[in-house]
Amino acid sequence: MVNSSFAQTAEDSVKNAINNLFAAMKNSDPLALRNCFTDSAFLQSITRDKSGKIVAKTESVDDFAKQVASLPVNAADEQIVFDGIKIDGPLATAWTPYNLYLNGKFIHCGVNTFVLLKQENIWKIQYIIDTRRRQGCKQ
């Protein structure tokens, strides 16, 4: 019998890195969350500004970690599906449709796109950009 921890594929390693982020969110653990990212990482969400123009709103990992730390444990539950992972050496991308729940209540859905870097043999998130909507969601 093969020990699955030793037979992990590169794709599985990328999935683990992303799943660690959502576990940190669910556990309201800002240190574990921060450890999922590279030092130069940032996050963006595609939104509309006051005039209706589509823009990318940028957030620092530290600000995101502060938001997560302010939540009770198990309050943030982002449920994702892996719908494509590409890897080239130390670079990986992942496309993950999601539904976000806060305290059990549906908030919104969308898609996350992750860019990860492999640093010292560990996948870290360099960049996340996401969409957010309330219509057309599969709950």
- Termini Cα gap: 37 Å
Quaternary form: single chain
Averaged pLDDT: 93
- Secondary-structure element sequence? HHEEHEEEEE
Low-confidence stretches: none
Q: β content, as a range?
A: over 45%
Radius of gyration: 15 Å
Fraction of residues in H or I helices: 10-25%
The gross shape turns out to be: globular
Largest sheet: 7 strands, mixed
Q: What structural class should be given to the helix and strand makeup? A: alpha+beta
The tally of strands reads 7
Number of helices: 3
3D architecture notes:
The chain has helices spanning 10-26, 30-35, 61-69, and strands at residues 37-48, 54-60, 76-80, 85-88, 91-102, 105-119, 122-131. The chain is built from three helices and seven strands. The model has no long low-confidence stretch (mean pLDDT 93). The protein is an alpha+beta fold and 139 residues long. Strands 1, 2, 3, 4, 5, 6 and 7 form a seven-stranded mixed beta sheet that branches. It is 23% helix and 47% strand. Strand 5 and strand 6 (105-119) form a beta hairpin.
